[in-house]
Amino acid sequence: VQLQASGGGLVQAGDSLELSCAASGRSTAVRFAMAWFRQAPGKEREFVAAVNWNGDSTGYTDSVKGRFTISRDSAKNTVSLTMNSLKPEDTAIYYCASHLGSYYYVNPHEYEYWGQGTLVTVSS
After folding, report:
1. Quick one: pLDDT at residue 79?
2. Is the distance from CB of 8 to CB of 19 less than 8 angstroms?
3. Which residues lie below 8 Å from residue 65, measured CB to CB, with a gap of 6+?
4. In the prediction, which pLDDT does 28 show?
5. How far apart are CA 84 and CA 116, in angstroms?
6. What whole-number distance in Å separates Cα of residue 96 and Cα of residue 85?
7. How far is CA 11 from CA 57, 62, 87, 110, in A?
8. How far is residue 122's CA from residue 104's CA, in Å, rounded to a whole number?
9. Tell me, what DSSP letter sits at residue 109?
10. For 95-121, b where at least 16 C-beta lie within 10 A, e where not — what string?
11. Average pLDDT by consecutive 10-residue portion of the chain (124 residues)?
12. Which residues, in sequence order, are CB contacts of 29 under 8 Å at separation 6+?
């Protein structure tokens, strides 16, 4: 299974950005949850958002609620993270991750597969 993340970049505070993650190498019949994590310089990797296998349940860390939206297209094996009202503290490398199972977790150790990360930089 390979995960390919894209969409990062340099934006100003208040701007929007959309990250995408494409999964390949597995059957669309397999149930899997998807998530986004991020890691800022000098900090541990933290949970950002996740979606369950069929897209009807999502979860967010408190700091992004109301600003970020996670969605998935199961037919295309992709998951997106739409980020609005970006803040300098959102600056980090963003990673998509996949858990083989129906439901998502906030613990990164529950995810078996990881993308390479995409850098998001928000200037003030």
Report:
1. 96
2. yes
3. none
4. 65
5. 23
6. 21
7. 29, 22, 10, 31
8. 27
9. G
10. bbbbbeeeebbeebebbebbbebbebb
11. 94 98 81 96 96 95 98 91 98 97 96 96 97
12. none
Tokens 């297209």 sit on residue: 73
Instruction: Look at residues 61, 60, 103, 97 and name the one whose alpha carbon lies nearest to residue 79.
Output: 97
101: its two tokens: 């199972």
Amino acid at 118: T
Q: What are the start-end ranges of the H helices in the chain? A: none
Pick from 42, 31, 28, 6: which is nearest to 115 by CA?
Answer: 6
pLDDT for 30 equals 80
Looking up tokens 């995810």, which residue turns up?
111
Structure tokens that stand for 83 in this block: 């980020």
